[in-house]
Amino acid sequence: MGFSRLFLLLLSSAFHINLSSSEVAPNFRKNCSISDGNFTANSPYEANLNRLFSQLKSSDQDFNYGFYNISVGQSPDQVNAIALCRGDQKENDCRSCLDVTISSLQEVCPRNKEAIAWSKFCTVRYSTRKIIGVMEVDPFDQIHRWDSQSVPRDVNDFDRALSFLLKNLSVGAATGDSLFKFAAGSTVSSQRIYAMMQCTPDLSHENCSACLATASGDRMRNFCYGNTGCRILQPSCFLRYATDSFLDNSAKITIVPFSPPSPTPTEGGPPPSPTPTEGGSPPSPTPTEGS
Ligand SMILES: *[C@@H]1O[C@H](CO)[C@@H](O)[C@H](O)[C@H]1NC(C)=O
Ligand SMILES: *[C@@H]1O[C@H](CO)[C@@H](O)[C@H](O)[C@H]1NC(C)=O
Ligand SMILES: *[C@@H]1O[C@H](CO)[C@@H](O)[C@H](O)[C@H]1NC(C)=O
Ligand SMILES: *[C@@H]1O[C@H](CO)[C@@H](O)[C@H](O)[C@H]1NC(C)=O
Ligand SMILES: *[C@@H]1O[C@H](CO)[C@@H](O)[C@H](O)[C@H]1NC(C)=O
Hints:
Helices cover 32% and strands 20% of the residues. The chain contains five helices and eleven strands. The longest helix has 20 residues. The N terminus and C terminus are likely disordered. Bound molecules: 2-acetamido-2-deoxy-beta-D-glucopyranose (5 copies). The site of one 2-acetamido-2-deoxy-beta-D-glucopyranose (NAG) has 4 residues, from strand 2.
């Protein structure tokens, strides 16, 4: 009896240790196959990568608003990394995010020479290539809300207000300085929207704008349209929006009053067609098109 109870206790505590050591970062997403290179066990590359990870996890690094740019070793075994915490994260939360995200990444991409991980509060990427100052929009991933409350009250109005907000925030993020390119804000039309946009701060103003334009363009249209919450995750920049305030209380949130773009009546062109009234049928396709 005593023996089997002890055995069970040992078993369950071993199980518990296993569980906590494989804790996965919230909203973890990764890509291990950006390039098809693998390193071998006990290679110089592995040693450099391990050194890089322990430097990223160590508190000796300056916080710099959660931006880390580290290179270890010499070519061809050089490893370059960029890590970035979401702009509203404090140092301690940022470090916990890096810890758990790096551990998760090591677990799921154990031999890859290049990989990227996104999680709720931070991003970590590494490569043999030079990645600092280089704007990259691929690979990308997305997370969209998908439940009974995921449909905006008025899809078209929501979309217009969201675009208006993101236009403002992308300027704010791109004009940030070389340590911090982050903007968060809120607007309200048929419902309130919160959003954030962020670039890795090594990007130029122009490249940050271009990166955010890729995220908020076709990618957002394809994956986010008709959802009250969504994220587009790219290597060099990210965007997120939601109807609840997902930002830290200490974040600087720009209140952007929504003013729908008014049609310019003086241009002489035909007036814009009236928007269908509420409850009316959706706009029907022009019958002459393509016939
Ligand atoms: C790298 O490892 C993965 C998984 O083990 C394998 O599928 C892939 O073919 C390997 N790539 C190369 C270039 O060896
Ligand atoms: C912009 O990004 C491109 C592509 O990554 C890079 O080659 C270029 O140097 C960047 N330009 C600036 C001004 O940072
Ligand atoms: C990972 O990235 C590569 C290179 O961008 C891409 O071809 C591949 O589809 C991505 N894999 C996944 C699962 O997204
Ligand atoms: C990144 O790190 C390299 C090597 O330490 C340094 O020379 C470079 O100035 C850093 N770049 C940025 C944008 O922090
Ligand atoms: C964003 O909105 C704020 C608040 O209305 C305003 O002060 C700021 O000038 C706007 N920025 C841009 C680029 O439109």
